[in-house]
Please model this.
Amino acid sequence: QQQVKQSPQSLIVQKGGIPIINCAYENTAFDYFPWYQQFPGKGPALLIAIRPDVSEKKEGRFTISFNKSAKQFSLHIMDSQPGDSATYFCAAILNTGGFKTIFGAGTRLFVKA
Amino acid sequence: DGGITQSPKYLFRKEGQNVTLSCEQNLNHDAMYWYRQDPGQGLRLIYYSQIVNDFQKGDIAEGYSVSREKKESFPLTVTSAQKNPTAFYLCACSSGRRITGELFFGEGSRLTVL
Model:
């Protein structure tokens, strides 16, 4: 019930391509959905986030699409660059007095020059 | 600049030894967390603390201990009871004043047991 399923596990695209990472959840009590970007040997950093009452959010080349009825959300990276090569984690946050974050398993993205 | 600092970045330990990882934040955030990350895997919650002098076990607390004596600090001790301690450890914090709860991570500490 509290899992977040993320796919694919890894992804290779050419420079300029549009990688898409998908996540699905079951618990409708989740009320915030952040994405984190992690470079090798570093801690994850918040990339972009969305509330479930919004269907799309864009920040620069990064876009989240959210389908509340399907309980799915995805990250699109427009005009991908080699510098975008990293691991991406989707997450879902539950507010039960304190916040609980459930992470997806992560997607390793490699953008070829 | 506000942030969250973990130390040391790399740590080597002999089997049977306890080791303590430091985590300090100056973001004035109420909640702090410890996660473990194994190669190619996601983030697993070890312990978390929402206020000073209080903390709760996460999903994989066995073999670990924490303290929260100050708001800014949340050290993690990896004890000899932890069977497979070699991993990348991440500390994070979040503000209880925000209604969204997103996490801010440190740079991580890589522990290797020899």
Notes: The interface with chain B takes residues 32, 34, 36, 41-46, 49, 89, 93, 95, 98-99, 101, 103-106, 108 of chain A (CB under 8 Å). The mean pLDDT of chain A is 94.
